[in-house]
Design a protein that fits this description.
heterodimer; A: mainly alpha; MetI-like fold; 2 domains; globular; B: mainly alpha; two-stranded antiparallel ribbon; 2 strands
Chain lengths: ~300, ~300
């Protein structure tokens, strides 16, 4: 009797937790299928006529047909979505390759400057994106350009011979560069704990068979740390996909990402709740899919990140 | 001979891309920012054209009541968010520490809020807090209770609630993992000696979980200073300055007031604050480890 009541309370607590954590998400999902009239009129609950009109409005620039309720496609969501995908995917891949190489070097080799590198990686992890805003804005607009006389701009000009006034700001690569740099410390840190577990004997066997250091790394070590790579990939993708502040400072009309588009539409006076919920839902879908497919890796990554501190 | 040289060079070849990228896009910008914080710097100027003003930006900020306000808001936000999340998260973990059927399913549901973009989280909560349309006020209405002006009078509290919603599962999952990896023998011994559930929690479980809890707390604390998008979407720092945390103020100083020098100085203050916190936390863990080791050594001498 006692334990039965205990059990009931126990499952009640769990149900409340699950309801609290996914309730708002479900609410957004439901609202994204409602017309604004239905959202505002207050006929709450599930009694409404679902419509995909909001999604049509959001995606009007990539649809193959013209939604009849729209005369003009003002929301360029499709373009922003493509930008987001390009930026998030490229920066995730680059971060993983570069970060896993660095983590391997830090774990497996003793070399000069190793401690400096590993301490500074730890230190820059705590730098908030807001702190990077000012210098990145200044540098990407004024110095990292092909025709100016700045430090690195001049170097790039001398080596590659750039002509026009091309700056990193406003390009995909500009945003990708800062995302890779921002995520590297975390990826290096998390992958170290996975690389340590790779048995050295495997690498030595490969080396005896005549493999060079890069072959050993790419053909032997990388396949063995796939779970770690998956965890690191999800966290990197999540940051690159969701980030707003730096992207808003660095992007222009053609390279803006989905979060910027949502914030811009929110700050206008008359909020179209249905459309904005639909865009929010579209932005949330990729992370939700990752969560459902790879929650085990996410939790491994989270615990490895916290426990191996 | 060439093989030996390749082997000696290979760590540098593995490190080089990461070091180059971090030097260009993290270290150099940070240095640039420190340098820029001593200048009267407008966005249209390059840093070389900006006038050198010494410590003026720092002194202006030091005496600026708005900056104080925003610093207080930041500290309040971080303190409440981290302490409430720690209490709820650890409490739930202690409460639910047993074999749960469908545990992986539960965890999947709980990490969902963390994976969703902060912008979208802000969006959802802004809808729920809406004075007339929002879920909370509708519920209050249907219960016959007076409406609450969530984002007006209680803006800071509302922002804190949204963050607690998003991040408590993080602490819950980490502390549950820590709890379930505790040595069973210690708990078993306590139970045999007749310790009550409370005694077990206070004298055995919590002290054994402490290292993980401290790291978790530190991670959350650092993250609490990074929060920006949720607040931006929910309140844009308002009403007044009541929710304008430092990160938001930095971005507004840079983009609206167009004073990059002041924004840089503010970033440096924030960075210093975070540095102090991190160093303090690490020193504390070191000290605690040393103490634990000393106690253990003493216990061994006694026996």
């Amino acid at each position: 009797m006692q334990t039965q009541r205990g059990n009931a309370a126990f499952y009640a607590v769990i149900c409340v937790m699950v309801f609290m954590s996914i309730g708002p998400v479900l609410l957004m999902l439901v609202n994204s299928f409602k017309l604004d009239v239905d959202i505002i009129s207050g006929t709450s609950g599930l009694l409404f006529l679902p419509t995909i009109q909001n999604y049509e409005t959001a995606l009007c620039d990539v649809l193959w047909y013209e939604p009849e309720h729209l005369d003009f496609c003002s929301l360029k969501f499709g373009g922003a979505f493509v930008n987001s995908i390009i930026i998030a995917l490229v920066s995730t891949i680059l971060t993983l390759v570069i970060g896993s190489m660095a983590a391997y070097a830090l774990v497996r080799f003793r070399f000069m400057g190793r401690d400096t590198v590993s301490i500074s990686t730890l230190m820059v992890r705590m730098v908030p994106p807001a702190v990077l805003l000012v210098p990145v804005f200044g540098l990407w607009n004024n110095e990292f350009c092909l025709d100016r006389d700045g430090l690195i701009g001049g170097l790039i000009r001398d080596t590659f011979g750039g002509r026009g006034d091309v700056c990193l700001a406003g390009t995909h690569s500009g945003i990708i560069l800062i995302y890779v740099a921002m995520n590297l410390p975390f990826v290096i840190w998390i992958l170290q704990s996975f690389i340590v577990q790779v048995p050295r004997s495997l690498e030595e066997a490969a080396r005896v068979d005549g493999a060079g250091p890069f072959q050993v790394f790419f053909l032997v070590v990388l396949p063995l740390i796939k779970p770690g790579l998956a965890a690191a990939a999800i966290f990197t993708f999540r940051i690159a996909w969701n980030e707003y502040l730096l992207a808003s400072a660095l992007s222009d009309r053609n390279t803006k990402t989905v979060p910027i588009l949502i914030v811009n539409n929110m700050s206008e006076f008359n909020v179209e709740w249905g459309v904005i919920m639909a865009t929010g839902m579209l932005l949330a879908i990729p992370p939700i899919i990752f969560t459902l497919l790879a929650s085990r890796q996410i939790i491994t990554g989270m615990t490895a990140g916290a426990v191996k501190g | 001979m060439s093989i030996a040289r390749v082997n000696r060079l290979s760590p540098y070849m593995f490190m080089a891309p990461a070091v180059v990228i971090m030097a260009i896009a993290l270290i150099y910008p940070l240095g640039y920012m420190i340098w820029g914080s001593f200048r009267d710097w407008a966005p249209s100027q390059t840093i070389g054209e900006a006038e050198f003003v010494g410590l003026k930006n720092y002194i202006t900020l030091w005496n600026d009541p708005n900056f104080h306000e925003s610093l207080t808001v930041t500290l309040k936000f971080a303190f409440f968010v981290v302490s409430i999340e720690m209490v709820i998260g650890v409490g739930l973990a202690l409460l639910l520490d047993r074999d749960i059927r469908g545990m992986s399913m539960l965890r999947t549901m709980l990490i969902l809020p963390m994976m969703i973009a902060p912008v979208v989280v802000g969006l959802m909560w802004r809808y729920m807090y809406h004075p007339t349309v929002g879920t909370f006020n509708r519920t209050l209405d249907s219960l016959g209770l007076p409406r609450v002006d969530w984002l007006g009078d209680h803006a800071l509290m509302s922002v804190i609630i949204a963050d607690i919603w998003q991040w408590t599962p993080f602490i819950f999952i980490l502390s549950l993992a820590a709890l379930q990896s505790l040595p069973r023998s210690a708990l078993e011994a306590a139970r045999i000696d007749g310790a009550t559930a409370w005694q077990q929690i206070i004298y055995i479980k919590l002290p054994l979980m402490m290292p993980v809890l401290i790291v978790t707390c530190l991670l959350r604390l650092i993250d609490a200073f990074k929060v920006l998008e949720v607040i931006l979407v929910l309140t844009e720092g308002g009403p007044g300055l009541s929710t304008e945390i430092l990160a938001l103020r930095i971005s507004r100083t840079a983009t609206e007031f167009r004073e990059l020098g002041v924004a840089a100085a503010m970033s440096n203050y924030l960075l210093l604050l975070l540095m102090l916190l991190t160093v303090g936390m690490f020193a504390f863990t070191r000290w605690q480890e040393a103490r634990a080791a000393r106690i253990r050594a003493l216990a061994e001498e006694d026996s």
